[in-house]
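sorry for the late reply, my laptop died twice this morning and i had to redo everyting from scratch. anyway the thing you sent over, i finally got around to it. pasting the sequence first so we're on the same page, its 242 residues, then the predicted structure underneath. double check i copied it right bc i was rushing
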Amino acid sequence: MIRPGYVHSFETFGSVDGPGIRFVVFLAGCAMRCQYCHNPDTWNMQTGKKYYPQEIIEKALKYKPYWGNEGGLTVSGGEPLLQIDFLIELFRLAKRKGISTAIDTAGGPYSDNPLFQDRFDRLMHYTDVVLLDIKQMDPEKHKSLTGIDNKNILSMAMHLAELEKPLWVRHVLVPEKTDFDVDLKKLKGFMEALGNVEKVEVLPYHTLGAFKWKDLGMEYPLEGIEPPSQARVDNAIAILTL
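ok and here's the structure:
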C-alpha cells in the first residue's frame, strides 16, 4: 500500500541542500525540540499537506532541465526519517527517472531495531548522498539542546560509513551551546574515523526564526544569544576541515 507523505513546503531552486541545484521537499513532523530551530512550524506532522510520491516526482521533473549534471531531489524537514516508508517509495520512483537523491536529516528516528534497519537499508539503496546535521558530540549537551540523546545519531553515522554512503556533515554553530573547541575537535576526530565524509558545512546560528516561536505562543529558548562572530565561524571551519 502506497502511503502519502505530509509535506510542509517545497523549494524549486535550492542551492544549499546537496550537490548542484535541487528540488527540495520539506516534510512536516519532527520529534526533536532544538532550542535554535528556525522552523518550529514543521514540528507537527498533521499540519502538512498530503502528497503521494508520484505527485512529487511529477512536480520535481518540471525543473529537471535546470539541474545540470549534479542537481536533483533533496528531502528535508522537519525530520524526513519519520516518514521512512514514504521516502522509500519516493526515492524508488526518483531513481527510475534518473533523479539524484539526497536526504537532509538530524538522524533522531534512527534505531538498531531490525525492522527499522531493514527499511533504512532499503532507503539507502535509493539514496545518493546523506546530509547529516550533527548538533553536538557531548551527549549531555546534546540532550539539553535538542531534548534527546545522540547515541543513535552517531550510530547512524557509523552505519552509513559501513555502507560507504557519501556523507555531508552539517554543524550549526551556536554560541554557548555548540561552539566549544573541545567538542568541535571531538567531531573532527569522529568524522575522520568514519572515512566517508565528503563535505563539512559550518552553519552560523541566526535568529531569523525567533518570530515563529512567538507566533506559535512559545518562548524562544535562546533569547539574548547573538549569532557567532566571524572569528568563531572561521575557527570552527579551521578545526572541522578534513
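Helices lie at 53-61, 84-96, 114-125, 139-146, 151-162, 181-194, 210-215, 230-240.
thats about all i looked at so far, will dig more tmrw
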